[in-house]
Write a structure and sequence with these properties.
Blueprint: H1 9-24, H2 30-38, E1 59-62, E2 65-67, H3 70-80, E3 87-91, H4 97-104, E4 108-113, H5 116-129, E5 134-137, E6 150-155, H6 164-168, E7 170-181, E8 186-193, E9 199-207
Parallel strand pairs: 3-4, 3-6, 4-5, 6-7
Antiparallel strand pairs: 1-2, 7-8, 8-9
Helix pairs in contact: 1-2, 2-4
This protein binds S-adenosylmethionine.
Residues 65-68, 73, 91-95, 97-98, 112-115, 118, 139-141, 156-157, 209-210, 212-214, 217 line the site of S-adenosylmethionine (SAM).
Length: 218
């Protein structure tokens, strides 16, 4: 894949239109929309496919994985209620687009990807774009106990169930956002940790993610 880091008027315009589309689709958080408006999503595409970068679609990034649909990224991010300085664990870095959105919101991000080829590409691309963060390669289905606790945890692949380890690694008041279901479709689940053993769970809309693969997953 040949990356080119040029953000010209055509891409800037397309990004603005994407933001308006997401607003129409129901994304309300201006901070999230602002972040979508800032991150050059076409930098994650080969130049041949730049005309696809600001469509509201997922797109292949190699290794059988995808860059998430912008609406899905905005939807999950909105549910996290990110505040500046929040310590966030992202499971499923992929190409790093969601990571950039979290960084634009002022989060301190720990992100883990199980596919080494994607990890190696992303640790080069993001710093080149000016985003520096904590990248890890490995199975994130158990969370990352070494760096816990986290204020927020976001899982960007479809899980068969909510892994206990992730709940334990949340701060009190912390939020987990995770798609849960079978391999065909998953429902977005948010879990707020209200006490040491107390959680409030909300089940939301249906999505289709690539599978979360690992010890506490598929
Ligand atoms: N966050 C990405 C974005 O911004 O577009 C989307 C990532 S893609 C939909 C899901 C990613 O999760 C894939 O790159 C996949 O390899 C990764 N993944 C699946 N299971 C994982 C696991 N147990 N630990 C870490 N990453 C995992």
């Amino acid at each position: 894949m040949a990356y080119k880091f040029i953000d010209n008027y055509r891409e800037k315009g397309a990004r603005k239109r994407l933001v308006e589309l997401l607003r129409k689709k129901g994304i309300e958080d201006e901070h999230v929309l602002n972040a979508i408006g800032k991150v050059p999503r076409h930098y994650f595409f080969d130049e041949t496919f730049w005309n696809q970068a600001y469509k509201d679609i997922a797109f292949p990034i190699g290794e059988g994985q995808t860059i998430s649909q912008p609406y899905t990224v905005a939807y999950q991010t909105e549910l996290l209620h990110i505040r500046k300085g929040d310590k966030v664990l992202e499971i499923g870095t992929g190409c790093g687009y969601q990571t950039c959105i979290l960084l634009e919101l002022g989060a301190e991000v720990y992100t883990i990807e199980r596919q080494e080829k994607l990890y190696l590409r992303t640790i080069q691309v993001l710093p080149h774009m000016g985003y520096k963060t904590n990248f890890f390669c490995g199975d994130g289905s158990k969370g990352m106990v070494k760096y816990a606790p986290f204020d927020k945890i976001i899982v960007t692949a479809g899980a068969p169930f909510v892994p206990e380890d992730m709940l334990k690694q949340l701060t009190i008041g912390g939020i987990l956002v995770i798609p849960v279901g079978d391999e065909q479709s998953q429902q977005m689940v948010t879990i707020l940790k209200v006490g040491d053993q107390d959680y409030e769970k909300i089940v939301l809309d249906t999505f289709r993610f690539v599978p979360l693969v690992g010890d506490k997953a598929w």
